[in-house]
């Protein structure tokens, strides 16, 4: 007799997380070990049994607004060019995004990130994306695949590879996607004014993607208005640190 696992509401996880479904035979072929049943888990007759595996999510950490943008020098796999913070000195604002290829939270926003950045880059915003994931654990996030991704989605911004992960640490980044918006007044260094979410949409919460939170912050910076300090953290996959 086949079994179906049903978890009682007292131990259900957040429904905002993306869900992957595998049959028992598929899970064994993928290398997952058998799971012990929680005391509140009930086995009921059905066919076939499915295992529900949820991706862990991470929130961006609070950052000090007004802090300076860290220096960096990173290669762009698509072109081979090495970019640094100085390359953006002529712009009034800089958006730094930590993204990657595989994360479902990034995939959920990817096309809209391209639309938003295209729109604001035409209005004077500088944009750079950085991937800091370890290729030892996630080879699909390596430079070769980053170049393919940038070409496939026509990224209008440079997509840089942080192999050492030092740049992620310098910026205090912990998840993908993560958004840091800096403003620049004259010869003063870039100063952080926004470190928050793209919008309220998540891969499985059925909220439309609008880019509202980030758009409002960019609009204020480009128009010379202050950005409210109350900001919702970005939510996504954890950066995959070197083992």
UniProtKB/TrEMBL annotation:
Family annotation (InterPro entries): AhpC/TSA, PRX-like1, Thioredoxin-like_sf, Thioredoxin_domain
A Pfam cross-reference name: AhpC-TSA
Single GO term (MF): oxidoreductase activity
Ranges for domain Thioredoxin: 63-223
Gene3D superfamilies: Glutaredoxin
SUPFAM superfamilies in UniProt: Thioredoxin-like
Protein name: Uncharacterized protein LOC107460628
Protein source organism: Arachis duranensis
Gene: LOC107460628
């Amino acid at each position: 007799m086949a079994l179906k696992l049903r978890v009682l509401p007292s131990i259900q996880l957040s429904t905002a997380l993306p869900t992957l479904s595998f049959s028992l035979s598929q899970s064994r072929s993928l290398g997952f070990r058998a799971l012990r049943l929680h005391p509140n888990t009930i086995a009921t007759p059905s066919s076939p049994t499915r295992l529900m595996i949820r991706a862990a999510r991470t929130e961006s950490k609070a950052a000090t607004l007004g802090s300076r943008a860290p220096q960096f020098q990173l290669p762009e796999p698509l072109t081979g060019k090495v970019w640094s913070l100085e390359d953006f000195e002529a712009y009034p604002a800089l958006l730094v995004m930590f993204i990657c290829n595989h994360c479902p939270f990034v995939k959920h926003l990817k096309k809209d990130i391209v639309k938003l950045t295209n729109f604001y880059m035409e209005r004077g915003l500088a944009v750079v994306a950085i991937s800091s994931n370890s290729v030892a654990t996630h080879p699909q996030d390596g430079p070769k695949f980053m170049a393919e991704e940038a070409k496939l989605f026509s990224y209008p911004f440079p997509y840089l590879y942080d192999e050492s992960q030092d740049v992620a640490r310098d910026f205090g980044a912990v998840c993908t996607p993560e958004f840091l918006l800096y403003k620049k007044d004259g010869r003063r260094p870039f100063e952080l004014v926004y470190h928050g979410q793209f919008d309220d949409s998540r891969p499985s919460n059925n909220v439309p993607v609008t880019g509202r939170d980030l758009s409002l912050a960019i609009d204020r910076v480009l128009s010379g208005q202050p950005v409210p300090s109350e900001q919702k953290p970005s939510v996504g996959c954890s950066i995959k640190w070197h083992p």
